[in-house]
Amino acid sequence: LEPAEKKMDPGNHSSVTEFILAGLTEKPELQIPLLVFFLGIYVVTVVGNLGMITLIGLSSQLHTPMYYFLTNLSFIDFCHSTVVTPKMLVNFVTEKNIISYPECMTQLYFFIAFIIAECYMLAVMAYDRYVAICNPLFYNVIMTYYRCFQLTVTVYILCLTESAVHTGFMFRLFFCKNKVVNHYFCDVFPLLELSCSSISTNELLALVFSAFNVLIPVLTILASYIFILSSILQIHSNEGRSKAFSTCSSHISAVAVFYGSAAFMYLKPSSVSSMDQGKVSSVFYTCIVPMLNPLIYSLRNKDVKFALKKILDSGKCR
Prior knowledge:
single chain, mainly alpha
């Protein structure tokens, strides 16, 4: 029978208390090199994102809407990576990477929440840049502290609610005796493959929510950048155009990597998805993107460099 039409087989059903994560690869010779590689990525991710949050908090000149959103993006990236990476690193040094049922569902909940939060925070940041470039005279009037707070709270409420719906429907499934999750963390489709009961509702829910969470932010980002591009073309200074285009290209590149890898994994039914291809795709938005975002959005920024230099200089004076 097709996966969406699977029925529970009482003889093959057991009360699942734990799962075994298959990991990124089963080749023993790759375990240590991958451990070192992803440990390095995680360290850079933690230092970069927590460092950015600390720097923005300590620097009064960075207390603007743009850096307020960057703080939230750094927080989301740190949490997103922390939900997945430590457990993946454990898999490289253990023969069987066992994860309990409650721990698996908890990981699933927070993974979905933070990936959705990243989608919408990227869109909010694009909107902020649209207001700053296209309506500079009204920027402080439009992007007030209260408006920024409203946008941020809306993002978190939306991601936590959608994640609760996904996880709630996952709790309703019966899982078979085969409890090996063909992934390096608890994700929606790899878990659905282990279900003995019908997963048609879960697949439909995943497809609808994924399309919703990709299309709305992407359309917001595209609309924002169409207006931004129109404004940039009206700039007569070559230096001004070059600076604006450079900022836009970095943002668009990061958005393309994040949404491209996420869409590849989620915008098709699990029956036609290759989980091995999905693992590689997942690495981008669970490990690589959270590491790159501080570099793309902040560390190349002159204001951030100046704030960092100022703090370092004040530390030397003491």
